[in-house]
Amino acid sequence: MGEFSMVASDIQIAQEAHLDSILAVAKKVGLSEDDLELYGKYKAKLTYDALTRIEEETTAGKLILVTAINPTAAGEGKSTVTVGLGDALTKSGHQTMIALREPSLGPVFGLKGGATGGGYAQVIPMEDINLHFTGDFHAITSANNLLAAMLDNHIQQGNERQIDARRIVWKRVVDLNDRALRQVVIGLGGPFQGVPRQDGFDITVASEIMAIICLARDIDDLKRRIGAIVVGYNYAKQPITAKDIGAEGALTVLLKDALKPNLVQTLEHTPALVHGGPFANIAHGCNSIMATKSALHLADYTVTEAGFGADLGAEKFLDIKVPQLGKAPDAIVIVATIRALKLHGGALKTNLAQEDVTALEAGFANLTKHIETVQQYGVPFVVAINRFSGDSDAELTALENWCKANNVNYSLTEVWEKGGAGGLDLAAKVVEAIETTTSTFRPIYEANQPLEEKILAIVQKVYGGSGVEFTTKARKQLIEFKQHGWDQYPVCMAKTQYSLSDDATRVGRPTDFIITIREFVPKMGAGFIVALTGDVMTMPGLPKHPAALDMDVDNSGRISGLF
Length: 563
Hints:
globular, alpha/beta, Formyltetrahydrofolate synthetase, domain 3, four-stranded mixed beta sheet, 19 helices
């Protein structure tokens, strides 16, 4: 195996790659120029006519969901494995598409970086996708903030709906990490400047409109969902919606193009739909239903991912997205890395590059829990060991021996260094799992269960905790939700990605822990109730050395520093 450090950086690889025209990429899955709205040579959106025709005239192929163990702060290459697996399936002769989320500018300029994969398993054009792309996030930001402006204007212009300014729950958003905006006061400066009140900003990917874009089926459904958004409460403590203040039409106008999936390609020219981008620790963490459904009807195999570990993204994919998609995964890939397992086994974050078989073996407990979680859903799985340059032979041998001893179907993948060729074994094992094992998908809870029971099911079955505690505020909200008829919605847990518990420092496989629900946030447009745990932030901050400090562009327009 070649030394990873000798491989060029992600952005260098992407900039030196040959791109097929987007028309040639589309042709691979039976799309014509009339099916596309072109955004230059290498990006396009699917038209509404094409989306309708695709679903009506074709049958759905197989769906592969890529998830992971609890990651480290730097991420473990789940998007890289997703892209590499897609290229490996293409290389194996299968008609394949990839369905990914769009990157948020917050992580791009912050700590984690972009979301286009890495090494020789990337979607391209990398710079475009990681930056402004086709403008979807800007449209979502504008729509979110138009609703905020119309809400404040309604209060200013007589407040016909008797909205209580102390009970407004709709925040403004910006697609950047900016901790200074978490808590703000608006309307200062006298009567002509609005009604003073406390407000705040979330990051765009935390906006309910982002979740709605990823769950809406068409424009009418989008408009209906926007109208159902709860923006606050009146003096009688009854919910006020976007429809109540007449905002749903204008917001839908801003979002009509953002609703269309974006078509790009991988380094090996596998077609990829990159669309939507809700975070998985504060939202449901999956790309759009429209993109996933289109890929399913265009390809024999669709490879998609859900954010962070199986306790977050995969649980939400399976319990929130699947019922609305109407299709469960035919197989699940669980990405694991040596370094993350060592962290879960007690190794310090600063020592993950050092060989430590003892910590690695202690960390197997975290992988075991994620395997057990996937098994509860009744879907066949394969563990993908995503190899990094610092992994020693002794560590790799220990992990492979553990998989063999526990009858775990696994594959050592090297897609970062070798592209699709490094994922051929994984592709073969995933296809075999699909062809030889019947998926017996079953959700973790039933739709008609009370919210408390749904949360308890997630905590006990997915996290491995012992129980749930509700703050006084949360208990009062549960009573109110029943009165409003909101208790039949699925639950979207907002929880740290670094631990199975709600405490980021409790790595590995903690047991006998209690999850505390401090507050609920109803997302009636998205169609789920967010349960806030721990200290999860909906507006991240920049780290001490943000990625933005290392970025630049030369006079020819060539960008450096993106990753």
